User: Fold this.
Amino acid sequence: MKQYSAWKVFKNGLTGQKDWGRAWRDPEPKQAYDIVIVGGGLHGLATAFYLAKNHGLKNIAVLEKGWIGGGNAGRNTTIVRSNYMMPGNRQFYEHSLQLWEELSHELNYNVMFSQRAHVALFHSPGARDAYARRYNTMRLTGSDGELWGLEQLKNEIPHLNYNDARFPITGAAVQRRAGTARHDAVAWGYARAADQLGVDIIQNCEVTAVRRDGGRVHALQTSRGEIKAGKVGFAVAGNTTRLWQMADLGNLPIESHKLQAFVSEPLKPLLDHVVVFGVGGAHFYISQSDKGGMVFGGDLDWYKSYAQRGNLPIVQDTCEAAMSILPCLGRVRLLRHWSGVMDMTMDGSPFICKTPLKNLYLNAGWNYGGFKASPASGWYFADLIANDRPHEFIEHFSLDRFTRGVIIDERGAGPDPKLHG
Ligand SMILES: Cc1cc2nc3c(=O)[nH]c(=O)nc-3n(C[C@H](O)[C@H](O)[C@H](O)COP(=O)(O)OP(=O)(O)OC[C@H]3O[C@@H](n4cnc5c(N)ncnc54)[C@H](O)[C@@H]3O)c2cc1C
Assistant:
């Protein structure tokens, strides 16, 4: 496998782009692996990469029912931030952001991470105070954060609706190191780097049954035959409850909901930040892609489903939110919209943990914030699988936190999965 470099880009530009070769192999599945990760999204691919890179493990496979990055990995609005306050979340997401800052070099693949600042608008003194508490906590624990008053906000982002918005904008909480990345490049970068370390990435390979031998997983039945596994990790996002039931483990505290995203026709540079607001039942986030499209999204579709498509009322709701904050978008045409299946938990926080089966490990419950988490999620899930014990940063991401009453409800929304955005 070739290293990418500026010289290679130049040379291939002169020779008709014929000398690139495959980015990763397309192997036939073996009969047995030491470790099998189910799910070729960002979390599965990152886990396989760090298992090989950080722990020197070999004989690993990633099984993906479709193509890698075809799930939420390639459907999200690509916001990366670490503006978390709760113990358990704070260190984890900050480590993730630090991994993002080096990811293109680490993978030798340009993931187009753009630190353009995450700007969370506030609309009342109460909201400002809540943000001040959260962003001060972030600063005290080694992250970055600042509060902007109205004048600074107007200077930085002049196009927002400062005149007659239904909820007047009074300022913003800002994390400058936050930003966006190119989502499918992250999937391809992890896949290529994992493949170089010997990981078999097997696409079009759906797990259809989990064969148990008492308290262990013995093998996985797949659409490409039975595969034996020493250890198994589930990283299947919105399909977690399906896999969990295949393992005969009952129900999980997860509901699968769908979330839509939207992109407009390309525009000249308009917005150089990620702008977010949430007030009075409305929730909205927007940024501009490198191609110029306005990329935005809002709330969940608010009913449970495994379908990767959304409904029209949310299109209207999200476009109304867009108009309330950026009225200049009124005559811009929508290019496409799509949906992904979100694994929403009761407290809005994830699971990276052991399970009732001795050699089965769970990575799930990313709600709709799992893109930014993917480097740290892979890092700590690999650590858990390799050492069979959770690192202190993920100790609270366990299944029994609900029986112990140690929930991590960052949003303070209570035990209703669809309220945790
Ligand atoms: C519209 C939208 C906007 C979002 N915006 C953001 C954002 O701005 N910032 C952010 O941080 N997060 C965001 N997210 C959330 C983020 O995309 C997800 O939390 C994250 O991608 C989930 O992890 P993953 O990439 O591993 O999941 P996926 O890419 O869904 O990977 C799971 C894989 O498992 C495979 N699979 C399922 N069942 C089986 C089976 N039986 N056998 C084999 N393979 C199987 C699936 O095909 C899939 O490829 C958004 C999500 C959506 C849908």
User: Anything to note?
Assistant: Residues 38-44, 63-66, 70-73, 75-79, 206-207, 235-237, 239, 243, 259-261, 297, 340, 366, 368-372 surround flavin-adenine dinucleotide (CB under 6 Å). The CA atoms of residues 46 and 105 lie 15 Å apart. DSSP finds ten helices and 18 strands in the chain.
